[in-house]
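Dear H.,

Thanks for agreeing to be a second pair of eyes. The structure we're designing against is below in token form, covering all 115 positions.
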């Protein structure tokens, strides 16, 4: 019993270092781009309009995937989705047209000291 209790912290440490499970399959793949989330809340033409707006506001950036939050908000990922580092644009539909709102960068890699 005592050895089990002593090894518990080691087991928890090793479990936290394991790779996260792969993301679920996309709800839709549109023009080679995986679409996650509430993809059914937007038409394909609506998604293509959001993609076109993102390409206009972020020219040259590869689109890895899109997450649909609602019929009026999407996140266009310019990195592979990862807890370590991800970069995406938030687009919102305003008066019927998509507008890039903000660029987000998040992840645990941002917490690493650079000294």
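And this is the sequence the design step returned. I haven't edited it by hand at all.
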């Amino acid at each position: 019993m005592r050895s089990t209790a002593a090894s518990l912290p080691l087991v928890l440490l090793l479990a936290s270092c394991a790779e996260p499970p792969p993301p679920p399959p996309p709800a839709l793949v549109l023009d080679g781009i995986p679409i996650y989330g509430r993809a059914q809340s937007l038409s394909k033409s609506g998604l293509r309009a959001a993609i076109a707006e993102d390409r206009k506001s972020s020219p040259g950036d590869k689109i890895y995937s899109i997450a649909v939050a609602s019929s009026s908000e999407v996140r266009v990922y310019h990195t592979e989705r990862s807890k370590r580092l991800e970069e995406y644009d938030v687009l919102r539909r305003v008066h019927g047209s998509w507008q890039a709102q903000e660029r987000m960068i998040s992840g645990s890699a941002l917490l690493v000291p650079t000294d």
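Two observations from my side: Strands lie at 28-30, 33-37, 65-70, 73-77, 86-94, 97-106. The helical segments are 2-17, 44-57.

Warmly,
E.
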